[in-house]
Amino acid sequence: MSKAILTPANVLLAVLLFVAFAQMTAVYLLMQTPWTGINAVAGTLPDTVVVESIDADSPAAGKLPVGTVLTGVQTAQGLLKLAPLLYDFPPLSPATFAQLDAFYQRQATLHRAFTDPVGVTFVTVTGENVTLTPLLYTPLSALPLTFWLLSLINLISPLVGVLVWTYRPNQQASALLLMHGLFYYLFVMGGVCVVASEFYLPPEILQQVLLLQVAGIGIAAPLMVLILCYAPSPLVRGNWLLWLTLGGSALTIVNYHYHWFESPGHMYYSQHPLIYIGASIAIILQWRRTRQQPVERAALLVLATSFMLPSTLIVAIHVIPILFGKLPLVGNTIILMLFLLIAVGLAVGILRYRLFDIEFWWLKSLLWLLGGCLVAAIDLSVTALFQLSDSYALGISVIIAGFLYFPLRQWLLGKVIPAEKQNLQDFLPAFSSSLSDAVSQDTFEQRWLESLQQRFHPLHLEPLPETITHTQLSDNGLHLQIPSLDNTRSYRLSGKQRAARLFHKTDVKNTESLLTVARMASNASEMRQQAIMEERRRIMHDLHDSLGSKLLTLTHQLPDPNHKESAKQALMTLRDTIRLSLKTTPLRLEDHLADWRAEIAERADAAGVTLHWQQTGDASIHALTPKLVLEITQLLRETVSNALKHAAPAQLSLRFQMDASTLQILVGNDGRVSDPATWNAGTGLGSIQTRIARLGGDVRFELRDKPKLHNRVVLRIPLQSPQGL
Q: Has keyword Kinase (predicted)?
């Protein structure tokens, strides 16, 4: 039943009703205040205010000219100063209950003056007295534009809370943000009542307004710390911390209203540095917990920046001056807007919207804050130490900050933000070099994968059957999906820099540039290979028609059997050369082992020799280039020819031994045996030695005595052939 009630529509309706009630309450309170129609600002002279404008049809219309400088109002007790105006004064700044009572008493005195039946008498700086009778109630139309604008703009906070809760209803942080938005709006409504006041607020109304502010910010501020305790990952289990925080906040609010006890330093603001410290501790703990979790780490950066940047400014320019008994550096309106930035930033962090951009803008925010704080700190120090005028102190501060800020900025850019180890320009030479020796589509694809690994060091690289046209980000930058060069599949990279970072838009742009270069190189290589193949086909066709036909004629016409066999071998070599030269992809070793066995078996059978064939190792894992296959074929033919021609054996044995990187061929025969040291290096032996050297292998000629005396040739051929094969 509760789930049916808490639907997005019902929650939105409840929030809008809450906002409307808070708005109507603020309007009602303001309309209960006396109205003169005078819009005043602080004057340049001490303790004065200046009439900036006067509303038409107001009690002051025609009685006070615009620009009049007022010193106060005349009362039975004497001159009562109007400065500081309430809208420009922090109403929560009284540090003790005695100061707060005095603040209320001053508002009560002003209220008696403005509600005097005979009217209120304004005293100008020239000593002139101007008496007018204010209206006892402020018309709705007289409420200033600032009131409506601030109410409307700060409506963003509760609406953002509803939006986040709608998208993440089961996440505790989203519920806390919704609560934060509601209580923050209470604080805003109290604040805009102060900002919209004319000269003062009646004490009973001011007391209600301040209670709204204390209740609103007293709960909204700790809720921000709680959000950091539950997002991006929970630091505590259960709701005990929530109830403890709400209980402490309620105690603070009740204490402020009933004046039970005063906290050291300031009865209200002394708790705000503690909230700031608590949030900082939560951020540090979250930072440690989100190690090797790039999405959570990016969300934390959003949350931390959203809280720390405005909060640091609020503490620095508003809270700290009040704690030291000074007026804040900015007015109430700016403080309200800074609090609004916190709510929006927290929403982005919880929703994890565009987290892949965080690494760029969070440092810009940090540098902006650092630069401003550095100039302000140096300016205050120079002014205090050397007693210089404001202009000289500011100029010197800017110069000193320039020498300190820019080196520090460069250090932060290099250390705080983990930049790419290589920019795109530095990576291009190695990338181009890796593609330069690729000759086939498969090789280009393999080089492309190797380049992606080298560029991003992903935690996982997974091929996908899905085809895409452009590089895409997914899961807030956790994944980067990249097309293959031939666009028949795609690859998903997960966890940039071993899951230390997120992919971002710059990675998409750079990858698209690399993809374009790789495809251009692949297409150019394919066109070059096609041109080479066309020329090779033409040459092979000419060889087959001319030299091939002549060799075929010789195999039939030569009378000498040896010559006929040589012509036949030459014809077979020519045909193999033509066939293999037209191949562009690697060939399977196991297929050619079968071809070699069939050919050698046929020759052995024709010579009346028994063939013994053995294979050890897995031939299916090896792929050979066409040129390597042709070279091994020629080596086998020449070795077998030498054995059959010169040794006249009864048995011929061939054993192929294969491991991961080497092919070893042992060719033995039991014919006429002699010591290899006595052999003359004729054409056959020289050809074998030349070919094996070209392959990067070696050859041994052995005289063996087991199982009986025989000669053996050992060919060792690396399967990872040298460049150029």
A: yes
